[in-house]
Write a structure and sequence with these properties.
The chain has 1 helix and 26 strands. The protein is an all-beta fold. The strands form 7 sheets. The chain has a 6-stranded mixed β-sheet, with no helix packed on it. Strand 10 and strand 11 form a beta hairpin. It is rod-shaped.
């Protein structure tokens, strides 16, 4: 149709029909231009080409071309509201690289909203601003109308640092699903392999480990918990403790959270064998199951604990084998309760008796047993501990054990011992 073209002051080339028009200066349209391409070439045909070149071939880094969008504000001023810019980042022939940047008006200033860059192979939303006037969220809508969206948002770090989320090299296609935190029955996302987490993590639901998966503890994975299926005869929950090295000892301790944490209890110094320890509420005593040697297990108490009870008065205790008691050899000494040789519970072979020397029992505790064998060919005096009595006679009075004989001393209560057989005191 008929049209009027006003030539600009600079060069204006009007090519033939169907060919491109080249303008070396700004061209202003008073109506919206329409570009119609009648081209039989398959694929994409560029309807508008923007070129930034120089006659002296003086290409420099960050040269580019762009499209500016201008609008009018309420002060009747026309100003730029957005732009799309393409700039060079690498200008070496054969290895060229560039960036595509979308800029948008935000709080009175046009700034970068999105950047596609080959420099670090990234898509960047927003930019560093000295204030909050930027873009910091990526919003992705689902396919269903009015059903919400997924928002990925960045907030200011303490320092000018990046937080990177990246995948490992997967051998298969993998989908990670963020579950509904308000749904108490939602499964936690399942992942395979190891990951490191610094800080606390809280779960309001179940945590499931697949067969033969570990939970490691310690900076170097000193200990672990594992559901083990490698044994063909059994499946087991394994608590594996680190091998002794420096201050790493193989101890599993159970105690009150208010007293056991963050303390050097001093109970496990020198431990080299796997040890299970149960501490009292104050963490001042312990019951310990461990190994004194590779072939000798033991149950002991320590700290301020004074006794160990197996079962109670109504429940019989059955041993698979004959229990062993401690044994010792002690030389009789002194001539009175104060200077007699002290003995402990268990079996004691006493030497050096001469009708004057003696031994002294430990303080009476109900149920304590001392078996004494007089190994000398002379009478042995047996003294109770201070303020205790033997065979219900006067407190602090000694018992007499004939030459080469033996007797069992059983504490009835906290002050009285009885002998089996009954001896004359």
């Amino acid at each position: 149709s008929a049209s009027t073209i006003t030539l600009p002051p600079a060069t204006c080339t009007l090519s033939g029909i169907g060919l491109a028009e080249t303008f070396s200066a700004v061209k202003t349209f008073t109506a919206a231009p329409v570009v119609m391409l009648d081209d039989e070439t398959d694929g994409i045909v560029n309807g508008l080409t923007l070129t930034h070149s120089s006659s002296n071939n003086a290409a420099t880094f960050a040269d580019g071309s762009g499209i500016s969008f201008k609008l009018e504000n309420n002060a009747n001023t026309v100003e730029e509201w957005a732009s799309i810019d393409v700039a060079s980042q690498v200008i070496d022939d054969g290895t060229e690289g560039g960036s595509l940047q979308f800029n948008l008006m935000n709080y009175g200033t046009v700034g970068r909203a999105m950047l596609l860059s080959t420099d670090d192979q990234s898509l960047t939303l927003g930019r560093n601003y000295t204030d909050g006037n930027g873009i910091d969220k990526l919003r992705i809508y689902g396919l269903t109308e009015n059903k919400g969206s997924l928002v990925i948002q960045s907030v200011a770090n303490t320092g000018n640092t990046d937080i990177t989320i990246k995948n490992a090299a997967h051998a298969q296609a993998t989908t990670y699903t963020l579950q509904d935190c308000g749904n108490s029955t939602a499964d936690i996302v399942t992942t395979y392999g190891e990951f490191t987490l610094n800080g606390d993590i809280q779960f309001a639901g179940n945590v499931t480990h697949n067969d033969d998966m570990y939970s490691y503890y310690g900076t170097d994975g000193d200990s672990l918990i594992k559901w083990e299926t490698g044994d063909t005869n059994a499946q087991a929950l394994i608590f594996a403790l680190g091998a002794p090295a420096g201050n790493v000892v193989p101890v599993a301790a159970f105690g009150d959270i208010g007293t056991i944490l963050g303390r050097d209890l001093g109970f496990f110094n020198g431990v080299t064998q796997p040890t299970l320890a149960l501490l009292d509420a104050a963490a001042t005593s312990y019951l310990k199951i461990d190994w004194s040697a590779a072939t000798a297990a033991r149950i002991t108490v320590g700290g301020i604990a004074a006794s160990l009870t197996l079962g109670d008065a109504t429940v019989p205790v059955t041993f698979g084998g004959m229990p062993r008691i401690p044994t010792a050899t002690v030389a009789a000494a002194g001539d009175a309760q104060a200077n007699a040789a002290a003995i402990t519970t268990g079996f004691t072979l006493v030497s050096a008796a001469d009708a004057a020397k003696g031994v002294k029992l430990p303080a009476a505790v109900a149920g304590a047993v001392c078996i004494i064998k007089n190994g000398a060919a002379a009478v042995l005096k047996v003294w109770p501990n201070t303020d205790d009595a033997i065979n219900a006679v006067a407190a602090n009075a000694n018992d007499v054990l004939a030459a080469s004989t033996a007797a069992m001393y059983v504490a009835y209560d906290a002050t009285t011992w009885y002998t089996i057989p009954l001896l004359g005191s």
